[in-house]
Amino acid sequence: MLSTHFLSGATNAKPPLFPATTAFSPLIDPRPKPYPITALLQWNRKPQLSGETPRVVVVTSGKGGVGKTTTTANMGLSLARLGFSVVAIDADVGLRNLDLLLGLENRVNYTVVEVLNGDCRLDQALVRDKRWSNFELLCISKPRSKLPLGFGGKALIWLVDALKSRSEGSPDFILIDCPAGIDAGFITAITPANEAVLITTPDITSLRDADRVTGLLECDGIRDIKMIVNRVRTDMIKGEDMMSVLDVQEMLGLPLLGVIPEDTEVIRSTNRGYPLVLNKPPTLAGLAFEQAAWRLVEQDSMQAVVVEEEPKRGFFSFFGG
Amino acid sequence: MAASVWVFHPRLLSIPPSCISSSSSSNHRIHIRTRIRIICGISNSGISKGTQQLKQQFMNSISKFRHQLVTSPPILPLMNGSKLPIWVCVAVVVLVAAFRVVLSITRRKERPGSVADLVRRGQLRSDRRGISRPLKYEDPFNNPLVKVGKTNSTVEMCGKVYRLAPVTLTQEQQTIHQKRRSRAYQWKRPTIFLKEGDSVPPDVDPDTVRWIPANHPFATTATDLDEDLAQNNVHQKHGVPFRIQAEHEALQRKLEALQNEQKLNKLVIDPTSAKEFERPFNSNARLNDHVEKSSSNNQHQASDSHSPKLDSSPNHFQIASSSPPEEDPSL
């Protein structure tokens, strides 16, 4: 479930390539497309970073278990692979997991709480990934320590300011992995963010939470919100047992940053502490994360999504081949 | 209803070449053709008048067919008696079968669960098998696993072809959704966190208060940190972290005070042994207790007697602190 990437380039402000249809049956659209998809591939170039650096992006969802941490890990390492310097902040105070997904759990000695206390400096708390040295992890607290909420949000703003004024230069991206829910952790995580990536799955519980969280983000002044639809199964969409991506988009009204297919490799990569995007050869979900990261860099959104697997047709299909 | 089975006997096609010669008479041909027997098997279950009629029709059709065969011009004699067409047919059938086998073998490799597929998906180690290729692409849209169809309406990813559909979300629809959400969710980001039971300060908007349960597992409203100090700590780029330095200085001051009180001018802190004075972790108060206790012990020892060993030893502090309490007459 990926899309081609359009040279039309960028931004939501541009007029859409395709006219809106009111009566839209997105599960499997049987109608002939009125306009051919004029997608063009981008050959042999790196993505162009748009927007002011550091881009502070919060990855949030509302509902738990939809893939916020997985997305943060994979998109972070994809961005690092594309040559951008990335700091991923695990803002999940009580239930941090980003270090596990990245396989860096044994290297987290200091957290933001120790930095605030003056037990260590910020650069000592940043854990540099050995696979991609322009990727750094920062955990906000240890699982058993308590974070003083009085300046949780302020602390993240200070962190962003401190990262901006680093001697080795400001990072290009600061990805904040938001905890589930809309509790104090959510408020802390969204405080320094300028843009948000909303993760949702194509089910109604996740959609309701996503809509509410989007409303809260918009109330807080974060207008640049894009969504990633995770755990999509084309076979279930074809059988009309799952909402299609275009259904989800119609309900939430958000531009699409990516569509991630359900893939058993996600569980394996989680257990191995080795993000999908580093797999050789890449998996379907890993490719989708990479493409989402590319769009994030260029502040682009998807213009076409795949709706179903096309039935195989060949000369020998007549003979049962 | 009677089920009929038509059986064609191919062995009867094995015609001797002498019979198919161009000079053979029409009687011979009739003889040959009539040897093509078509057996009509009728089940015994439902023999009735209807079946009798049906049988009659079949017999008529067979006689018609026989008549056609007799009247139609002979084909086989035109082949000049060679078996070439038969062999061509056999060769084509063999070729098609072979091609299908080859095709199925190649497709079997693409099937999920096969070794090649497991290697491709990273479930098996491929480095020993010699069929892996390094990840050479940098563009996720331009790599061997993503191929867009010529009409741009399909995309092939990881060997599967997907149909594409355009995204139809417009800016107007986005704006409508934003307005809907702004009506549905009125929210202000909380600026103050209070424990249950605390009173709201007078100058604070009650909407921006977030109430935290007293037994919250990982959030606390109590903070013993100064805000400015914490900000400075975050922005500190070089040198010893604030708290480490503060504790070190406090310890230094204690020792200096101790030296002044005891007039132990020879006492110096050896940097190698100074590690022993380092705070274990977040035990400032405990260290202070240690220092106080040790200083009192020292004072007591100093009042008792001056030991030359104590004077010379850089670890005097620790020795003093570890002195047995029985020496203290007050205990």
TrEMBL record, chain A:
Gene3D superfamilies: P-loop containing nucleotide triphosphate hydrolases
Positions with a binding annotation for ATP: K63, G64, G65, V66, G67, K68, T69, T70
GO biological process, one term: cell division
Superkingdom per UniProt: Eukaryota
GO CC entries: cytoplasmic side of plasma membrane; cytosol
Domain (CobQ/CobB/MinD/ParA nucleotide binding): residue spans on this chain: 57-275
Coiled-coil blocks: none
Keywords, alphabetical: ATP-binding, Cell cycle, Cell division, Nucleotide-binding, Septation
InterPro entries: CobQ/CobB/MinD/ParA_Nub-bd_dom (IPR002586), MinD (IPR010223), MinD_FleN (IPR025501), P-loop_NTPase (IPR027417), ParA/MinD_ATPase (IPR050625)
Function: ATPase required for the correct placement of the division site.
Protein name: Putative septum site-determining protein MinD
Highest classification ranks of the organism: Eukaryota, Viridiplantae, Streptophyta, Embryophyta, Tracheophyta
Automatic annotation (TrEMBL), chain B:
Record's keyword terms, sorted: Membrane, Transmembrane, Transmembrane helix
Region (Disordered): 279-331
Signal peptide: none
Transmembrane helix keyword on record: yes
Biased composition (Polar residues): 294-324
GO (cellular component) term, any one: chloroplast inner membrane
TM helices/strands, residue ranges: 84-103
Listed InterPro entries: MCD1
GO BP annotations listed: chloroplast fission
Domain of life, source organism: Eukaryota
Name the record gives this protein: Protein MULTIPLE CHLOROPLAST DIVISION SITE 1
Annotated organism of origin: Crotalaria pallida
